[in-house]
Backbone:
């Protein structure tokens, strides 16, 4: 339903090529779907299926931000993608040295690359990189309870962050309707996570 509503707005505004927009939306929708599948499998202790869904979300999200880099020269999420591959390697290989401490070290290296290459154009990019560490750290933890709340925090950050900018762009009448996907689709994942919240308060 959300997907169709977003496409309707884009069609009415004619701000982008409808085929290009549709492709971006489909990939973003699949990413959100993989995140929900991943968590659903993990909560049912179907670890192997959860890993496949987690790997799928990593590949799709990487493709989205490679596209953003090539199309708009947006670096905000491209390098932090390297953080997400490590939890996948950890659970497939059972390597104990791949833990949250190791991922934090990788994150520090990513920060150093951003600063050394002057890739941080403003404070907003820096903030995004700083909180991007939450989800890969969560995925590397053994505690299901902490993993759940950190994952929920991360996806809520994405929703609140994108909602704020969507509102700002709306006030400036400079909105690109594809930005709806970065607000409404993460909201569906937030709702999905909140459905299980009682389980993790016990």
Residues:
């Amino acid at each position: 339903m959300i997907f169709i509503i977003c496409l309707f707005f884009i069609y009415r505004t004619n701000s982008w090529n409808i085929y290009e927009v549709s492709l971006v939306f489909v990939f973003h929708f699949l990413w959100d779907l993989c995140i929900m599948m991943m968590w659903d499998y993990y909560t049912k202790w179907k670890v192997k299926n959860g890993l496949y869904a987690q790997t799928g979300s990593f590949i799709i999200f990487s493709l989205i931000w490679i596209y953003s880099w090539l199309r708009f020269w947006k670096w905000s999420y491209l390098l932090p993608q390297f953080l997400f591959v490590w939890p996948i390697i950890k659970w497939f290989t059972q390597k104990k040295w791949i833990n949250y401490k190791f991922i934090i070290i990788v994150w520090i290296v990513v920060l150093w690359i951003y600063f050394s290459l002057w890739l941080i154009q403003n404070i907003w990019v820096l903030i995004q990189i700083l909180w991007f560490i939450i989800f890969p750290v969560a995925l590397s933890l053994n505690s299901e309870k902490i993993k759940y709340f950190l994952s929920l925090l991360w996806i809520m950050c994405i929703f609140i962050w994108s909602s704020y900018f969507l509102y700002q762009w709306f006030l400036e009448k400079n909105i690109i309707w594809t930005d709806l996907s970065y607000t409404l689709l993460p909201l569906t994942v937030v709702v999905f996570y909140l459905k299980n919240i009682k389980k993790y308060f016990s």
